[in-house]
Each structure stands twice: as C-alpha cells, then as structure tokens.
Design brief:
Chain B: This is Multiple sugar transport system ATP-binding protein. The complex is a heterodimer of chains A (296) and B (381). With 296 residues, chain A is mainly α. Chain A has 16 helices and two strands. Chain A starts with a helix and ends with a helix. Chain B has two domains: 227 residues, 3-Layer(aba) Sandwich (Rossmann fold); 119 residues, Nucleic acid-binding proteins (OB fold (Dihydrolipoamide Acetyltransferase, E2P)), CATH 2.40.50.140. Chain B is elongated and about 75 Å long. The two termini of chain B are 14 Å apart. Classes of the chains: A mainly alpha (296), B alpha+beta (381).
C-alpha cells in the first residue's frame, strides 16, 4: 500500500527533479516518528505515578518501602487491611452523591445562564464571562475562613449538602463557560423556528437546545464530576466523618504513626477506580465534547 | 381573510437605523416580495412581522389587530428560513408535527395533518428520515411542510431558495407559485434576486437603506420605475444610464440632446424642469436597437453570445452601454455600431434621481401574477 503510494508520484512526474520528493517524504516520516515518540513519552511520564501506585498497592508494606522493584509476589494484603479498617463504602457513597449532586445542580443553574448569554447577549456578557472565570484564579484558601464560619453558623459543616454547594460554586464558572461555547455553536435559526412553532423558552431549551448540544452538555457534566471527585481542599476542611468523600479517606492514611505506602496506594487505587472507569468509558464523548468547536 | 399593514415601522440597532419608516399594505391572498440589495433591511422587516424582532416604533397590524406585543407563535404566521432550520434530531414527520406537538394536538390528528401536507409536497416516502438524509430541495420542502401544517394566515419566506443550485431554484420557484395557488394564502417573500421577485410576485416592495423605494406589480416596476434605484435594480441586465441635455419641455414630452449630437422627444412630464436641469436618460439593454441610422454610436468592447440573444458591451465616450441584440448579429469586437431606441421605451431621471412621470401608461403595468394564470372557480367568486 505505502510503496504503491510513494511510487506513483515518481512515475507520473519523471521530469521533476527527483531529489526533492524523497527528502520531503523522509522529513515527513521523521517528523511523524518524532511526534509519536514525544507523545508516548509524555503519556508514560503522566501515567507512571498511577502505574506505580497500583503496583505498590499489591505489595506488602515491607516491599513497598524496600528498593523499588518490578518483581515481587503480589498480595491483596493491603486491600484486605484497608477494607477491614475503614468504611470505604460510606466514603465512596459520599463522593458519588457529592460529585453528581453538585454537577446536576451546576448544570441546572448553568444551562439557563449559558442560554441567556449565548442567545440574548448584552454589552456586558463578555465581561461577565471573564469575571466569572477570574474567580477561579482566587486561591481557595483566601475564602476558607469566611466560608468555614458561615458553614458553621448555618450548620452545613460536615454535611453533603454543604459540600455540594461549595463544589457547585467552584465548578460553576467552568460549566457556564463551556456550555456557553457549545450553545454559541448552535444555529440560532433552529431556536427561532421553534419559537415560530410555538415553543416557550423552556420548551426551546428542553426539546431543541439540549438534545442538539447533548455531547457538549455530557462532556461538561463529566468534567464537573471529575473535578468534584478529585477536589481535596474543601472536602478536607469542611468535612470530618459524616460527609467525608474519598479524598478525605485517602488523606486519613497519612497518619501520625507514619506513612503506610502500600495501604495508601491500595486506598488511592480504590478511590480513583470509579472515576477512571467512567472516564475510560466516556473518553470518546469527552474528547468530542472538548474539541467540539475546534474541529467541526 | 389575512391582511397585513405596516404603519411607520422603524427599527434601530443602537445608533444605526435599519428600517426608517416603512408603510405597507398587504392584501388577502397576495404574494408580496420584498426585494433589495443585501443590507437593505428586508430580512429585518420580515423578522419584525414574524415577531422575532421587535419594532422600535410603528404598528404591525395583522387582520386588523395590532400585533406588536404578541409572540411569534400567536400571530398566526409561519416562516420558512433561509437555512431551512429543520430540527436535526427529529424525523421529517416530527419536524412537521412539532408545532402541533407543542399545542398538544392528539397524535392521530397530528399524523393526519402531516400526511396531508406531505402529500401536497410529495414528501410521503421521506417521513421517517432525518433531515441530514435529505437533499437540499427535499429539506426545503420539509421546511415548507412545517409551515403548511400550522395552517397560517400568512406565510413568510426568508430567501428560501438561495441555498439551492440554479436548476433546482427554477423548479422550486415554479413549485412555490403553484403552492400559492393551491393554498390560496397570503405570502410574503424576501429575496435579493430580482428574477425571483419578478416571476413570483403579485406585488413587489423594493427596499433600499431601510426605506421603501417603490411598491407595485412587477410590470409596473419594470415599465414605470419611480426612481433611478428601482430602474437599475429591476431588470437584467441593468438599465443603461446616459447624461443628456435638455432641449425643451412641453405638452408632447421632453426634448433631449443625446451624446453625439442627436435629439429626440421622450413622452414624459417635464413641467417641473428648468432650463438648466441635469437629466439622465435610462434605457434597458433590451430596448436598445441596432440601427445604422440610429442617433447613438459606440465601439463594441465585449460580445457575449448566448445563442438566442447576444449582449454587446459598447463604449460610448466615457460610459459603457449594454445592448441586448438578436442572437444572430454578425458584429465583431472593436467594430463601431450605431443604435437607437423607441422614445416611448426611454426613462428620464432628474438630478435627484426621480423619474419624470411618463405620459403614457404601459398596458401591462397593472398586471399581477394572478392575471397570468387561467381563471379558476376560486378567482371568479
């Protein structure tokens, strides 16, 4: 196949100086090879810690702190111990409730906001969007004290509701921003046709806008779930036992008695497993959503 | 009965005035075409009628009721969009039935209406398809079908044919004219294509810079353009304009001095003219006649042979004149030709670009498309 393709131009244009073509082909080949190597290297560097963590989870505590080695006899000892000692399930349930709850709430608020910004823009829309994004640049620790005090006073400390509220607010700028870009790509005519057909604004959103931007909404939701799942700062500061999600669970393994690498790794693996599976199952959707505007 | 009146409609986007005081009367069952160059405000005007855009001032009256504050769906209108704007995730049937679904019409009744519209538009075999599996012409018909099922008092078409290729456009033009006859509804149609306007309209509204330049039947606009803009816009190829001198103006018409020294008398009302008035002569290419005794002379620059007709582009001093001549003319490029015209076919424009009123009314000026068709029972009633 490749030989046939490379031969053809050569035979067709014998008069053209032959030197230019092979060198061009060669340089394109080198470029491709270089990019491939670079891509794999970056992927390996990113993946290695996760790989090492999973591996460590299957080691004994002694093997884990010994010289790093790929050869060891795998054991489920750490998993067993982690499972016995702590209630993984309750942390996991908290994570699921908080991540999905905050995502649903964020979408519920963001869809109408993004609709109005995309289809009924004012002079200040662009500025509002930028301002919203700028709030993400504020270090969260800067507002920890007031939020902690407010939560204490209204009784939201160590509650799932409290965490859902914080995560919703945390992700809202990104969710609105992403939905805004997806909605902007939607042809306005279709919504106007809907309005001519008698659709109310709510019906427009439910029957036309949402079905047509579903890939975008899905990838936005997914991103929000992942961000909420991985969030550690607020969960560590605002929860203790009742509402603590998996991030707090992992942190509990760094105890005053010292670090237990194998158990910590086992717990971490269990903490990231659900979201890893979810991300893996939806990666096509995810990539499509994140590159929606760019490659259309 | 479906009528529409626009009373002193204006529209401004911030500082820019897009529509500057439009008055218009659309009669029942009339096919009205808004035509004008891009940016003239024709689409905005239609969107205001549809209710997708609000009027800055003025009244929109449908069937005698002021509709300015009524939502688009409650004005009893249906609109066909330039991009078709079909719902991509719905089948043809669902697309056409969407308005009824929103209105909570029972499923059986919905299906019946959709089938009826599909029959008129020959869409029956396509009802289960999604829009992306349809050709441009079929999508267009679905968009029209979606309008038909709403049973509107007025149909609005926003440049519906501009996304189709030339052959299909001609075909759809004929289908639309037929549809107008079959539905006997009031239709308003926006286009920048003066051929679409001429062929389909009962009444043409020529818009320019947000103002109505002229309203009239196609033949009226062609034979009696009110000003230089309408004269240049209606008709293809474009009308020729020549600066001429004024000799005299009396009851019999206006005597003019042509470039090259000839004179002629055009039957127009020159009572408003003064001796030093600047005048422009307008003659359509198809009204210029090759004639060895003709008063005008020029050198052929380009010859376009279309078979049945030949366009000659003739240099006359500073200006270029287009002549539509017979397909078999034997002239060659760079030859000098003489040509003339029938004075009754000529138009005169004053310094402001306004046409001098013609002393003779063209016999077909009052003709509408309705008159072109064979009288049916519906017409005689």
């Amino acid at each position: 196949m490749t030989t046939a393709r490379t031969k053809q131009p050569g035979t067709q244009s014998a008069a053209v100086p032959l030197t230019t073509r092979p060198s061009l082909l060669a340089s394109a080949g080198v470029r491709k090879l270089g990019l491939t190597v670079l891509g794999w290297s970056v992927a390996c560097v990113i993946f290695f810690p996760i790989f090492w963590m999973v591996l460590t989870g299957f080691k004994t505590e002694a093997a884990a702190i010994a010289d790093p080695s790929l050869i060891f006899s795998p054991t489920l000892e750490s998993y067993q111990e982690v499972h016995d000692r702590t209630g993984y399930a309750s942390f996991a349930i908290n994570s699921v409730v908080v991540a999905f709850g905050s995502t649903l709430l964020a979408l519920l608020i963001a869809i109408p906001s993004a609709y109005s910004m995309a289809f009924l823009p004012t002079r200040r829309t662009k500025g509002t969007l930028l301002w919203m994004l700028s709030t993400k640049m504020l270090p969260p620790v800067g507002v920890l004290m007031p939020i902690y005090l407010i939560f204490r006073d209204v009784g939201l400390l160590d509650t799932r509701t409290g965490l859902i509220i914080v995560y919703t607010l945390m992700n809202l700028p990104i969710v609105v921003w992403m939905l805004y870009t997806f909605f902007k790509d939607m042809p306005k005519d279709i919504l106007e046709a809907g309005r001519m057909d008698g659709a109310s604004t709510l019906q427009e959103v439910l029957f036309l806008l949402m079905p047509l931007t579903l890939p975008g909404i899905a990838s936005t939701g997914l991103l929000s779930v992942i961000l909420s799942w991985n969030e550690a700062f607020w969960s560590l500061n605002l929860t203790s036992s009742n509402a603590a999600p998996l991030t707090a669970y992992i942190a509990s393994f760094s105890s005053p008695e010292g670090l237990f690498w194998a158990k910590l790794s086992a717990a971490s693996t269990m903490a990231i497993a659900p979201i890893l599976v979810l991300g893996w199952m939806t990666q096509k959707q995810m990539v499509r959503g994140l590159t929606f505007g760019a490659v259309k | 009965m479906s009528t529409l009146q626009l009373k002193q409609i204006t529209k401004s986007f911030g500082e820019t005035d897009v529509i500057r005081g439009v008055d218009l009367e659309v009669n029942d069952r009339e096919f009205v075409v808004f035509v004008g160059p891009s940016g003239c405000g024709k689409s905005t005007l239609m969107r205001m009628i549809a209710g997708l855009e609000s009027a800055t001032s003025g009244d929109i009256v449908i069937d005698g009721q002021r509709m300015n504050d009524v939502g688009p769906a409650d004005r009893g209108l249906a609109m066909v969009f330039q991009s078709y704007a079909l719902y991509p995730h719905m089948t043809v049937e669902d697309n056409m039935g969407f308005s009824m679904r929103l209105a909570k019409v029972p499923k059986e009744q919905r299906r019946q209406k959709v089938l009826e519209a599909a029959r008129i538009l020959q869409l029956e075999p396509l009802l289960d398809r999604k829009p992306k599996a349809l050709s441009g012409g079929q999508r267009q018909r679905v968009a029209i079908g979606r309008a038909i099922v709403r049973n509107p008092s007025i149909f609005l078409f926003d440049e519906p044919l501009s996304n189709l290729d030339a052959a299909l456009r001609v075909q759809m033009r004929i289908e639309l004219a037929r549809l107008h006859e079959a539905l006997d509804a009031t239709m308003i149609y926006v286009t920048h294509d003066q051929i679409e306007a001429m062929t389909m309209a009962d009444k043409i509204v020529v818009l320019h810079d947000g103002e109505v330049e002229q309203v009239g039947s196609p033949m009226e606009l062609y034979h009696h353009p009110r000003n230089r803009f309408v004269a240049g816009f209606i008709g293809s190829p474009k009308m020729n304009f020549l600066e001429v001198g004024l000799e005299r103006a009396d009851d019999e018409g206006v005597g003019i001095r042509l470039p090259g020294g000839g004179t002629c008398s055009v039957p127009a009302d020159g009572s408003e003219l003064s001796a030093d008035s600047a005048l422009e002569l307008g003659i359509r290419p198809e009204h210029l006649l090759l004639d060895d005794q003709g008063p005008l002379e020029g050198e052929i620059q380009v010859l376009e042979r279309l078979g049945g007709q030949t366009s000659l582009y003739v240099q006359m001093g500073e200006s270029m004149v287009t002549i539509m001549a017979d397909g078999d003319v034997a002239h060659r490029v760079h030859e000098t030709v003489r040509f003339g015209f029938e004075p009754g076919r000529a138009h005169l424009f004053d310094a402001r670009g306004l046409a001098l009123p013609s002393l003779e009314q063209h016999p077909l000026a009052g003709l509408t498309r309705r008159d072109n068709r064979v009288a049916s029972d519906a017409d005689s009633q």
